[in-house]
Design brief:
Oligomer: heterodimer
Number of helices of chain B: 4
Radius of gyration of chain A: 21 Å
Strand content of chain A: under 5%
Keywords (chain A): Membrane, Transmembrane, Transmembrane helix
Number of strands of chain A: 1
Largest interface: A-B, 28 and 33 residues
Number of strands of chain B: 3
Strand order of the largest sheet of chain B: 1-3-2
Order of helices and strands of chain B: HEHHEEH
Distance between the termini of chain A: 35 Å
Shape of chain B: elongated
Structural class of chain A: mainly alpha
Helix content of chain B: 40-55%
Order of helices and strands of chain A: HHHEHHH
Distance between the termini of chain B: 25 Å
Transmembrane segments (chain A): 32-48, 54-75, 95-117, 123-145
Strand content of chain B: 15-25%
Radius of gyration of chain B: 15 Å
Chain lengths: 154, 99
Amino acid sequence: MDNIPADQARAALDVAERAQQHVADEVGLPRGYWWAMAAGWIVLGVLGSETPAWVAGAATFVFGAGHAALASRLLDGRRRTGGVQVSAAVAGRRLPLVVIGMLVVLVALTVLAGLALDADGAGHAAIWAAVLVASVIGFGGPEILRVLRRWVRA
Amino acid sequence: MTDARFDELIHPSTRLSLMATLAAADWAEFAFLKDRLDLSDSALSKQLTTLEEAGYIATERRLSGTRRKVRARLTDTGRTAFEGHIAALQAIIAGAATP
């Protein structure tokens, strides 16, 4: 064990740490989750704008229930792809909170965008606000989550 | 506390990467390992066989659609060996830093 010099030991440790970091980088949610979320966002925006309140309310309930069912399987972030299942120790426990927090902020952003568009006189303000935020979710969801994970060290 | 134990079998860079990758995962598919370690099919198969014969990893062949997929995971013996090796490397570095 003492036959190898410290610089070789350091290099070997770096190799191991790099390999483990590559696995840690796999933590996240599948691409399909973000696109499904974006699609749901637009549908809710359309329903909120074009249908009676009870329909939009019921749709929101169904969407929330569907998300909760998915969340129990996906939100631990260990199965982003089918190639690897990240260990619970590496994935940590905070990812679900980060995702939920992100969604709450995006809901607030949708409401603010809708109010701003409405104040500006835009027609179908709720739909446009939903489309705007859905684009952010669909195209940037994985990247936003990656940045948030880094910020909160989740 | 893990006992430091230098392991000659794990120490080569490719095997160390393979063990470290599997130590951070519950399991990994052959294709994932091949991509991440930048190895050919035959080179990865050889490394997996060596580690499996030592009892450090277990492989499982699964049918996915029409394709057969190989999934590897670290065994308890493998995890103990990996953690012991990492502890041994850290001890070498700590020993060198001590005047």
